[in-house]
Specification:
single chain; alpha/beta; 12-stranded mixed beta sheet; 3-stranded antiparallel beta sheet; 30% helix
Length: 504
């Protein structure tokens, strides 16, 4: 349990008090004896019943193992460390090991040998899993020494392209090429309806924090707290996507670690229909938001294929969750049309659930503050340009024979991505030729005389400055083997340093 020197939670952790989801007592903070990262916070949050680790500024308010879980189900893709082990690590001599334990996913087996009958045992139960995981831990430890030179893209590639056989590679473009997607544009049109009273909002199931970045950079900025069960996504979001916001790792839908009315609103985008206990989750989202203000964005209509989950509801089913509170419904098709027409969501006129029977992706706002139900006017500036302008990562970079001209060629990264985002073709430029000077300026986020054209054609987007590598730049490690070799050398060098220190 906590030492007597505990104090109320460090305000760097969250702009609201954190409470234990078990006993509902306010959590107090005990800092680690050493802080291994200059701008990180390590320690323990405690209450009368539990201790929860804080790893690089992110409270982990969970029980049991902190697994990497499939974003559509509760299936564990990577078995993680236990909360108890993480608490021991942050209270020990090297708190950074807690972060390594959460980020060092086991690499895939070579040539998928772990799935081949007759020869898989050495790669699933033999020495390979242990040795490979140790090498990956060394790789991650080395990468943590290069935090300021890496990007969100580098870490996403590590997780989705160079890790466990149980992680689908389709997740990389799904998350990485998010800014500029139709669903993202529809979401930022819908979130114009958020209250503007200056209070923080909760972004439930926030993932990497794409929405949080936009909210912080838009014309009327909003502070947010991101909540998700996957620590890896939260950490990349905290370090590279929206570093000025707050992040909490928790998985209790029926008991969220916040006090009543802690937020001006609760938001959940592209995830709520996946929740197995939706009524309890809705009740919690309303409890922690003033005026019971909740915005559910992009929930699946059970009446239409494809189904993300059996937990999807019909339009009236989502309305039932607000227990008779005032509400408005809209849908992604209309939000996207609103965005392309240059204005935000239209909420002044109430419409029955039956209006949305034929619409797959629905959005619901409910609040006792009915002043939020208005038609939002024209954008002063294109919202997808909020923040630092960088080249849209949907483009492949090609140079001519002289190297003086650069061609940006639109290219879907996969068939599934193309199916889900086919509308991008209607508003995103198919390609652009740039001179080298203009290309360099866009890579550095500098304005050019063609920037308005590029913004209008979604060639450049508002994205975090450290989100993507310079277009056309290869990854830090080009293969699983290269990363593991680097990690093994790091691990051996570390062991040698410890031996040398012991002899001295």
């Amino acid at each position: 349990m906590a030492a007597s020197s505990t104090v109320p939670a460090d305000p760097r952790l969250a702009p609201v008090d954190l409470v234990c989801p078990e006993c509902r007592e306010t959590l107090a903070f005990e800092a680690s004896r050493t802080q291994p990262l200059a701008d990180g916070v390590f320690g323990v949050l405690s209450c009368p019943c539990s201790d929860y680790p804080v790893v690089d500024g992110i409270p982990v308010i969970r029980r049991g193992r902190v697994d990497v879980q499939d974003h559509m189900t509760s299936r564990a893709e990577v078995d993680g460390p236990t909360v108890e082990h993480l608490v021991d690590l942050v209270r020990g001599d090297d708190p950074l090991e807690a972060l390594v334990a959460l980020l060092a996913f086991p690499p895939p087996t070579p040539m998928n040998l772990g799935a081949r009958p007759g020869i898989r045992l050495p790669f699933t139960r033999g020495p390979w899993p242990h040795l490979a995981h140790e090498a990956r831990r060394g790789e991650v430890r080395a990468l943590l020494g290069e935090l300021d030179t890496l990007t969100a893209q580098d870490w996403m590639e590590l997780c989705y392209n160079r890790s466990s056989d149980r992680i689908s590679g389709e997740l990389f473009p799904y998350f990485f090429i998010r800014f500029g997607q139709p669903r993202f544009l529809s979401s930022i049109a819908f979130l114009r309806a958020l209250p503007r009273d200056g209070g923080p909002i909760l972004d439930m199931a926030c993932g990497f924090g794409h929405i949080m970045y936009h909210l912080a950079e838009r014309e009327h900025p909003i502070t947010s707290v991101g909540l998700d069960r996957n620590f890896f996504q939260l950490w990349v979001g905290r370090r590279y996507v929206a570093p000025g916001q707050s992040w909490v790792c928790a998985d209790r839908l029926e008991s969220m670690p916040f006090a009543d009315d802690a937020f001006s609103a609760s938001v959940c985008t592209d995830a709520f229909h996946l929740f197995p206990v939706q009524q309890q989750a809705m009740d919690e989202l309303r409890r922690i938001a003033r005026a019971d203000t909740v915005l559910l964005d992009r929930v699946g209509n059970a009446e239409l294929e494809p189904h993300d989950t059996d937990a999807e509801r019909d339009p009236a089913g989502y309305v039932d969750l607000v227990r008779g509170a005032p509400w408005r419904l809209t849908c992604e098709d209309e939000l996207f049309a609103d965005y392309r027409a240059g204005h935000g969501v239209q909420l002044a006129t109430p419409r029955p659930p039956e209006d949305f029977t034929g619409r797959k992706w629905l959005s619901l706002i409910s609040s006792r503050d009915e002043s939020l139900f208005v038609d939002h006017g024209s954008f002063d500036t294109p919202p997808h340009g909020a923040g630092a302008l960088r080249i849209n990562p949907i483009y492949r970079v090609e140079r001519d024979a002289t190297g003086d001209r650069v061609h940006l060629r639109f290219e879907f990264p996969s068939t599934w991505y193309a199916f889900e985002n086919s509308m991008m073709i209607s508003y995103t430029s198919a390609g652009e030729w740039l001179d080298a000077t203009t290309f360099d300026a866009l890579c550095e986020g500098l304005a050019t005389d063609r920037t308005p054209h590029f913004l209008d054609r979604f060639v450049v987007l508002g994205m975090p400055p450290r989100y993507a590598r310079r277009p056309g730049t290869p990854p830090r490690f080009g293969s699983v083997g290269a990363g593991l070799r680097h990690g093994a050398r790091e691990r051996l060098a570390s062991a040698a340093r410890l031996v040398g220190a012991g002899r001295s």
